[in-house]
Amino acid sequence: MWDGPARSEAERLDDACPGWTVLYSLGGRRFYALAAWPLPEPLILVDDTAKGLERRIREAEAAVARRFSLVPPPSPDGSDGCPSQAFAVSPRVRAVVPGRSRRPYREAA
Q1: 106 Cβ partners below 8 Å, 6+ apart?
Q2: Which strands sit side by side in the sheet containing 44-47, from one edge to the other?
Q3: Residue of 77, 74, 96, 78 lying closest to 87 (CA atoms)
Q4: Is the pLDDT of residue 38 over 60?
Q5: What confidence tens digit (pLDDT) does each residue in 47-65 have?
Q6: 47 — phi, psi (to 5°)?
Q7: Contact criterion met (CB below 8 Å) for 36 and 19
Q8: For residues 23 and 11, what is the distance between their CA atoms, to the nearest angstrom?
Q9: For residue 86, what are the contacts with CB-CB under 8 A and spacing of at least 6?
Q10: Phi, psi dihedral angles at 31 (to 5 degrees)
Q11: pTM of whole model > 0.70?
């Protein structure tokens, strides 16, 4: 079994991070996280270690939450806790990119 411990880490991280699909690449020997919630563009994170990928996931969650105003910005005294704990996206939210058709295949026909 090649990279068994790394694949186990990817599975653990996949379970620990709802809203993300976490994979381990045998060929690249890297961890990948794909956001499984609606965004205007795909969000894919890559790192050499599971711990590094988990840190990137938390940073990305906080950045997206701030950008789309999903959570209030942290208070200056830091009493808000971890941004990733407050991060939540409703499954009913749909990403819409201004100026792009949601059905480009119909326009091409």
Answers
A1: none
A2: 20-25, 30-35, 44-47
A3: 74
A4: yes
A5: 999 999 999 999 999 988 8
A6: -155, 160
A7: yes
A8: 8
A9: 65, 71, 80
A10: -100, 140
A11: no
Residue where the block lists tokens 């270690």:
49
Task: Write down how long the chain is.
Answer: 109
Integer CA distances (angstroms), 94 to 37, 62, 64, in order: 9, 19, 14
Q: Given pLDDT bands bounded at 50, 70 and 90, which one contains residue 87?
A: very low
pLDDT class of 26 with cuts at 50, 70, 90: confident
Distance, in Å, from the CA atom of 66 to the CA atom of 68, rounded to the nearest integer, reads 6
Q: Where are the beta strands (DSSP E) in 4-81?
A: 20-25, 30-35, 44-47
Tokens matching residue 88: 């939540």
Six-digit token string for 109: 């026909």
Tokens at residue 67, please? Answer: 């950008």
Q: Which 3 state secondary structure label does DSSP give 27?
A: coil
Name the token pair of 45. 């994170």
CA atoms within 13 A on the CB side of 6: 18
